[in-house]
Design goal:
Number of strands: 18
Shape: globular
Helix content: 25-40%
Number of helices: 17
Radius of gyration: 21 Å
Distance between the termini: 33 Å
Strand content: 15-25%
């Protein structure tokens, strides 16, 4: 059918009652279903309202909602406590764990010629269309893919078919999509709904997933004038139109263009949400286009205890570090272990300042030697949080002891750029 629901705008504050009523109306329109699978994000997207929507789906379908498959990608499995935190009192026996290394089926292949074209002749590998076996072989008559559209470092704008093809993807599909984005250039992708990585995923959807009954349920979340998180939009559909509408609203809601570059940024990573630099480096990704040359980025990371949530990736980060694009490309060329895990290589590129600004990480559970060993500066968390008292900071520019800083309370919810650094046509 295409688009089922487009609700909200830049000024909307949709209540839980609004969302439930609109969602139930749409599900009624879809007709009776006997086997339903929901694919929401994990706790790293806690603010997406996906937990609430998944609970709504369970209330609507009851026992017909047979499985919940969090789209982990390469993230760690959710603990029972995290499931309860995000999804409430839903039966935990409905939840399945996606294993990106072992639990996928191959649906086809995007040809190397297409990747070569989209990468501007930088890459010549094919892209395997890998998804979790529940989606490929589970005989569900409805797959509800639920998540938030927000600017993203790998795919330009998060969600839509990324939730399926990467969130439940396999080692090769995740690695090669991430590497394509990194090699093409993160700053050429972020904030753009149309880009090479998205085109590859759209090709895969059009050619290999059109027989799977996927309905996309997409949210747009932002802050109101009081600083509270509110739901600005809800979009539901089975093709790209709902994503394009959500992306347009997300750019108005989540993308802040600054009149002057930031000299010093302080970014806070919520302890419950960010436990690794794999996730926490959103502090780098989302602010980099707003940072001046020789700026300082301070990352307050009380929950960070590791580099990669996957043990293999953690080992690779420790070995090669965040050394910049040329060093990482050379390492891929000369080292079989990194060449075999291109998602790790992409992450190393994404997490580097390329020598343009400094990054001071202030972790809760990692040592000075560990942080400096991967190329970051180390900051003492207690001293930094004493200097930059979060209770007295607001999102945006602040003055602290006569010094101007830019504060971001959650980098996952936005994207910032200095107007002169962002060219929408590149």
């Amino acid at each position: 059918m295409g688009l089922y629901l487009a609700l909200g705008d830049q000024d909307a504050e949709l209540s839980s009652a609004d969302v439930k009523a609109a969602f139930f109306q749409t599900l009624t329109q879809l007709g009776s279903r006997r086997r339903v699978l929901t694919v929401p994000p994990d706790l790293s997207r806690f603010h997406s309202r996906s937990g609430e929507l998944t609970r709504n789906a369970f209330e609507f379908y009851g026992d017909a909602l047979q499985c919940v498959l969090p789209a982990l990608g390469t993230h760690s499995p959710m603990t029972p406590a995290e499931i309860s935190q995000m999804f409430g009192d839903m039966p935990q026996d409905r939840f399945r764990v996606h294993n990106w290394r072992t639990d996928v089926a191959n649906m086809g292949e995007v040809p190397a010629e297409f990747i070569y074209q989209q990468s501007e002749h930088r890459l010549d590998y094919a892209w395997p269309v890998e998804v979790n076996r529940l989606i490929a072989e589970g005989d569900f008559d409805l797959v509800l893919s639920i998540g938030q559209v927000v600017p993203h470092e790998v795919i330009g704008m998060a969600n839509y078919n990324k939730n399926i093809l990467v969130g439940t993807g396999g080692q090769q599909s995740i690695s090669r999509s991430h590497y394509l984005g990194a090699v093409f250039g993160m700053e050429r992708i972020m904030g753009r709904a149309d880009n090479p990585v998205r085109r590859v995923l759209n090709y895969a959807s059009d050619h290999f997933l059109n027989h799977v009954p996927i309905i996309y349920v997409l949210t747009v979340v932002g802050r109101n004038n009081a600083g509270s998180l509110v739901l600005r939009g809800l979009f539901i559909g089975d093709d790209v139109e709902c994503f394009e509408l959500a992306s347009a609203l997300s750019l108005k809601t989540n993308f802040e263009m600054l009149d002057r570059p930031i000299q010093k940024a302080v970014v806070y990573l919520d302890e419950a949400e960010f436990k690794s630099t794999w996730l926490g480096n959103k502090a780098i990704y989302r602010t980099r286009m707003a940072l001046a040359d020789d700026a300082e980025l301070i990352v307050l990371a009380p929950g960070v205890k590791e580099f990669g949530e996957d043990r293999t990736i953690d080992t690779l980060v420790r070995k090669y570090g965040y050394r910049g694009t040329p060093a990482t490309l050379a390492a891929v060329k000369n080292n079989a272990d990194l060449a075999a895990d291109l998602s790790a290589a992409a992450h190393l590129i994404h997490g580097s300042s390329e020598g343009r600004f400094t990054i001071t990480y202030c972790p809760g559970y990692m040592s000075k030697a560990e942080i400096e060993g991967v190329g970051f500066h180390y900051g003492d968390l207690a001293k930094m949080t004493a200097r930059y008292d979060l209770a007295n900071l607001r999102d945006g520019f602040n003055t602290v002891n006569g010094e101007e800083i830019f504060y971001a309370s959650n980098p996952a919810l936005g994207l910032w750029a200095f107007k002169q650094r962002f060219n929408p046509n590149t």
